[in-house]
């Protein structure tokens, strides 16, 4: 029942793959806010068609329509609301339809300038497979907007949503209060309080089940502007949830958060530190748990000079997972994560730029009890990615190369007869070229080579026994016209080949997959209010393990803003 500001928009999207067809569409519009009678409407749908090998079509559809028709006065609005949602999934089973349709009246009254009250009453239909219910849809909303008292400003939102059917009931009560106070021009305090109760009854086969969720939350934020370039935030949050579904569950979270931001002329950095303590109490089970976590993050951006720039990111997360029962449940464990990202950018000349990216990820998992300690392990991922960009006149070229190594090493591998540690390595080199040979005419090419292997890793000797290796080649060649009858036209050809070898007992080619074919793409982007894209490709798939296939893939997309 909220009078939203909706952009006028029509979007349609269709794409086809081997044996699936997908449609997605949205539409939204509303009247001009110049008359007493107003309206707004939103429509969303998505549809998926699957045609399996046996040829029988299987549909999955979902459609949502909602809107308002209302009379607008100075202090009150009154009108009709409608909502319709339907889902049918025949890919899972023939009797898999759900829906909800509502139509009703609402009245919105504004008094004392900043209090808005909106009660509503309607009738609805609900469908859950073979069960169809008719019942009442009622509730209301209350909004207290920016109420000032003493040094504080309050914003309050409360709502009640009730469904009454002959055999079941649904209800939700939600209250959100937000209080702010500015002590001075350098500091501000805010307090957020939430109270939510939810109860849902629904059909399971021919019986009715109930789930209830109660949530309470308290959050405090302190903002400090230490100087024009330094800002500090301190935040504390308490949250409790009570969930009743088959058995009860109580979840309590206590979280502290610290953030420091520096905005300098050449150096910017952000430091954050977070601690949390979450307990879960499950009634009648032994899966109770307590999770404590500490996380530190640092982001740095340093402009060395106009030609050199350094970016650095570091994250550290420590988790401790405990359970009260060590006889039945041995999942108690500690975890540590380290993440490093470094990017160095150097503009070598006006036409040449070098980017150097490095990445490292370290993860250590430690089970506390001996029954699970054999799974203690380190996972280490290292990546190095230099990139070179050349741009001069009508020619642009981007060269990239990447090396990646992924190691998983078990702490007590030497106690087992067969090693369990493994390694995955990958090398990628790619190159893209674009040449403008006429005003609106371009010639482009892209090529990529990937070499990868995986196998057993012997950490003591830092040696590897390769079990499988792969080689992938991909290239595309295209012609592009950016002013073809006001459209952008691109015609090209793609080629993809992937080969797989097994190395035990000897290196043997195990599989070859080739996918190639031409494509054409037509798009319109000259007007900001209209975007159009149509593409079609013909794929020839040759697989050494499967019969060869030929198929068409396509995509249609239209965005219209009015």
Structure at a glance:
By secondary structure, this protein is mainly β. The protein has strands spanning 9-16, 20-30, 37-50, 58-72, 76-89, 97-111, 115-128, 131-149, 152-164, 169-184, 187-204, 207-227, 230-245, 247-263, 267-282, 289-305, 308-322, 333-349, 352-367, 377-392, 395-410, 422-436, 441-458, 463-484, 487-502, 508-524, 530-543, 549-561.
Give the % helix.
under 10%
Count of helical segments? Answer: 0
| Beta fraction | over 45%
The Rg value, from CA coordinates, equals: 30 Å
Structural class, by secondary structure, is: mainly beta
The overall average pLDDT, rounded, is 93
- The tally of strands reads 28
Major beta-sheet overview? 28 strands, antiparallel, barrel
Order of helices and strands: EEEEEEEEEEEEEEEEEEEEEEEEEEEE
From the N-terminal CA to the C-terminal CA, the straight-line distance is: 23 Å
Outline the low-pLDDT stretches: none
Broad shape: globular
Describe this entry's structure for a reader.
The chain has strands spanning 9-16, 20-30, 37-50, 58-72, 76-89, 97-111, 115-128, 131-149, 152-164, 169-184, 187-204, 207-227, 230-245, 247-263, 267-282, 289-305, 308-322, 333-349, 352-367, 377-392, 395-410, 422-436, 441-458, 463-484, 487-502, 508-524, 530-543, 549-561. It has no helices and 28 strands. With 562 residues, the protein is mostly beta strands. The model has no long low-confidence stretch (mean pLDDT 93). The chain has a 28-stranded antiparallel β-barrel. Helices cover 0% and strands 78% of the residues.
């Amino acid at each position: 029942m909220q009078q939203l500001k909706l952009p006028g928009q029509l979007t349609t999207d269709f794409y086809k793959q081997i044996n699936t067809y997908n449609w997605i569409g949205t539409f939204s519009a509303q009247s001009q806010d110049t008359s007493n009678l107003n309206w707004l409407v939103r429509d969303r749908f998505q549809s998926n068609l699957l045609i399996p090998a046996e040829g029988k079509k299987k549909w999955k559809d979902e459609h949502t329509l909602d809107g308002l028709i209302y009379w607008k006065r100075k202090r009150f609005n009154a009108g009709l609301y409608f909502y319709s949602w339907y889902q049918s999934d025949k890919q899972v089973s023939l009797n898999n339809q759900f829906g909800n349709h509502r139509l009703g009246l609402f009245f919105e009254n504004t008094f004392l300038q900043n209090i808005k009250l909106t009660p509503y009453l309607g009738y609805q239909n609900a469908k859950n497979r073979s069960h169809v219910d008719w019942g009442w849809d009622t509730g209301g909303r209350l909004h207290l907007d920016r109420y000032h008292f003493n040094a504080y400003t309050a914003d309050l939102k409360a709502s009640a949503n009730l469904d009454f059917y002959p055999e079941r009931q649904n209800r939700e009560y939600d209250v959100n209060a937000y209080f702010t106070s500015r002590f001075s021009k350098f500091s501000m305090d805010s307090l957020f309080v939430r109270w939510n109760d939810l109860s849902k009854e629904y059909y399971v086969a021919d019986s009715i089940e109930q789930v209830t969720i109660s949530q309470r939350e308290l959050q405090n934020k302190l903002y400090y502007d230490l100087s024009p370039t330094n800002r500090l935030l301190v935040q504390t949050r308490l949250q409790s949830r009570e969930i009743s579904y088959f058995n009860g569950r109580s979840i309590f979270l206590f979280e502290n958060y610290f953030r420091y931001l520096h905005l300098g002329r050449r150096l910017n950095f952000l430091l954050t530190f977070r601690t949390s303590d979450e307990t879960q109490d499950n009634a009648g089970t032994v899966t109770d748990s307590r999770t404590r976590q500490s996380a530190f993050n640092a982001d740095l951006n340093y402009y060395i000079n106009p030609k050199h720039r350094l970016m650095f990111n570091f994250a550290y997360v420590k988790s401790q997972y405990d359970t009260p029962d060590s006889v039945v449940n041995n999942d108690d464990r500690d975890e540590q994560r380290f993440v490093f990202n470094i990017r160095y950018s150097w503009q070598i000349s006006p036409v040449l730029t070098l980017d150097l990216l490095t990445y490292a990820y370290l993860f250590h998992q430690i089970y506390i009890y001996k029954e699970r300690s054999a799974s203690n392990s380190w996972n280490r991922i290292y990546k190095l990615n230099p990139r070179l960009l050349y741009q001069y006149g009508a020619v642009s070229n981007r060269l990239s190369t990447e090396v990646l190594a992924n190691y998983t090493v078990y702490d007590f591998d030497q106690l087992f007869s067969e090693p369990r540690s493994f390694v995955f390595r990958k090398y990628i080199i790619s190159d893209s070229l674009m040449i403008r040979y006429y005003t609106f005419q371009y010639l482009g090419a892209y090529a990529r080579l990937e070499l990868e292997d995986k196998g057993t890793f012997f950490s003591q000797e830092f040696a590897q026994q390769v079990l499988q290796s792969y080689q992938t080649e991909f290239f595309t060649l295209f012609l592009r016209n950016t002013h073809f009858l006001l459209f952008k036209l691109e015609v090209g050809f793609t080629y993809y080949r992937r080969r797989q070898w097994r190395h035990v007992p000897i290196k043997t080619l195990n599989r070859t997959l080739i996918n190639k074919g031409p494509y054409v793409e037509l798009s319109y982007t000259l007007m900001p209010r209209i975007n159009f894209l149509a593409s079609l490709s013909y794929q020839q798939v040759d697989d050494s393990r499967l019969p060869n296939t030929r198929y068409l893939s396509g995509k249609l997309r239209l965005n219209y803003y009015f």
